[in-house]
Amino acid sequence: MSMNLTQKIIAAHLVSGEMAPGAEIGLRIDQTLTQDATGTMAYLQFEAMGVDRVRTDLSVSYVDHNTLQMGFRNPDDHRFLRTVAAKHGVIFSPPGTGICHQLHLENFALPGATLVGSDSHTPTAGGIGSLAMGAGGLSVALAMAGEPYFISMPRVVKVRLEGRLTGWASAKDVILHLLGLLTVKGGVGKVFEFAGPGVATLSVPERAVITNMGAELGATASLFPSDERTRAFLASMGREGDWKELCADADAAYDDEIVIDLSALVPLVAQPHMPDRVVPVAELAGLSVDQVAIGSCTNSSYADMRMVAEVLRDKLVHVGTDTMVSPGSKQVLKMLAAEGLVEPLLDAGVRILECSCGPCIGMGGSPVSGGVSVRTFNRNFEGRSGTKDAKVYLVSPLTAAMAALHGQFTDPATWGTPPAQPELPAKAPSIRHLFVFPPADGSGVEVLRGPNIVALEQFTPMDDTVAAPVVIKLGDDITTDHIMPAGAEITSLRSNVPAIAQHVFGRVDADFVARARAAGTGVIVAGDNYGQGSSREHAALAPRHLGIRAVIVRSLARIHRANLVNFGILPLILCDRADYDRLTVGGTVTIPASSIIAGGEVDVQVEGVGAIRVRNDLTQKELDIIRAGGLLNHVRLSRKQ
Ligand code: F3S
What we know:
The chain has 641 residues and is α/β, with parallel strands linked by helices. It folds into three domains: 5-263, Aconitase, domain 3; 283-411, Aconitase, domain 3; 466-640, Aconitase, domain 4 (Alpha-Beta Barrel), CATH 3.20.19. The chain contains 20 helices and 26 strands. The chain has a seven-stranded mixed beta barrel. The protein has a five-stranded parallel beta sheet with strand order 5-4-3-6-7, covered by helices on one side. Strands 17-16-15-18-19 form a five-stranded parallel beta sheet, with helices on one face. Strand 9 (155-162), helix 6 (171-182) and strand 10 (190-195) form a beta-alpha-beta unit. The longest helix is centred in the first third of the chain and has 16 residues, at 73-88. The radius of gyration is 24 Å and the shape is globular. The protein binds FE3-S4 cluster (F3S). FE3-S4 cluster is lined by residues 64-65, 99-101, 119, 121, 296-297, 357, 360-361, 378. The site of FE3-S4 cluster has 13 residues, from helix 4.
């Protein structure tokens, strides 16, 4: 039977389930990655499973989020990550080496491999032909322990690329175009598989820009074939031996098809505060820009940085536009330095930041109050920049560089001739010696923990009947940033759940934590697409610590739904969307938990209102996990049996 590329990779890794769209499938996972903001918890969870050594082909622990080492917590976490990695057979990437997805693409990602990462932009590696998926830290911990990774068999959408990019349009504009077309909900349950003659016109780093922001579509993954461009990239990285050809069969079937004419694309911009609010840059001409930030896991490759340096060469950025650049890895920075491209950036008045996530996670580089920040990043949610009333616009590096020069958006028709898309050197300088490879036997390694590493609490199983008040009622498109805000102060507490839980919904409702703690239990009510955004599992773990036992919503985002299940929170969906209006804060909801069947409907009783019908889309296994009080309890139980 002919297969598309997604089906081929899934078939080669399938350990359970049928490859029918929507059916639960279990996949063998070849590689895992973690970053520090989610990694400490993933390794605490891995330790709790009692497995000595990772059972994947390759696992890497990157430190790229909280690299500034403010106070004792960040360095303590880094030391914990370094020592726990050595003990259990994980490669460690020290702070400052680069951003996890850029580094993984350069050094470890493989065509045809499965990769699960505790970061929602893990699909970046789809640019090289990996089936790469973002997951909660707990799922990654399980994959490291050799357990399968479970997903719903995705629907596969063929994105046929025709023509080639022209003028100032770039790979970023391809994915912004798709976001404008499909919205942030348009990819749920899908893999976007790129095909057609336009594919060969894009380098691996350009492909990775597109697969990176497939996460903003809510997609399970995005995938490019592995072809001669892939071979050239791997050869440049000194890894030509890792190349193999991979593509869909010529007559493969797809669930849907979209055609994009690359030659028709123009520079685009996603306006605040959602990545799908996309318009042509020309429409914003005249809008003043206070800050430009270039980098992130989306746009920090050598080619991106080089083109920015070419645009800014012998010029000065606008005096009112604070401009910063974060190269994606030390390899990128070394190449820029070797080719004399650091100097034009410095001379243009650019601030060169560390090779890390930096401003993307609010780790420095916050915009001025009420300011306009133009970023090459992937997310522009309210408050994420660290300045609550800032307005963040998402663009390509070329558009960002032009905004930096003019201090405002201008019409691309006035920009003149763009720099050429640079080729990668035949052999890029290696930074492989900077990774800390684990000893063959880690049994003698002592894991060093600071006071901020707090052992996990064991949650109680679900009672037969859950009676809990509605402790908060929210609207549509609530992100995991709304639930569990980021920023240096807060994320430094991620391995200390009682402390980080103090900040849940802190930017939405300052009284929430006190109300939830007073009730000792609670139900969250929300509208559509609850929990969209980053894979932050603390957005489920910390509410669970506060006693949250269920969410009742109109619809849920995929990764957050999985995290709710993993921590024993029941995700319930309103059968009648209008019932949302009947739920109010304070009213007790009584859920007959023991009567719930997987994929079924049930009446919940709402104080002062009466019965409200809810459904769930849980598998039997997911329901068992919730009843056990979460996945760790469930794994412990099943290992005892
Ligand atoms: Fe880092 Fe931002 Fe990407 S936080 S991993 S650069 S989305």
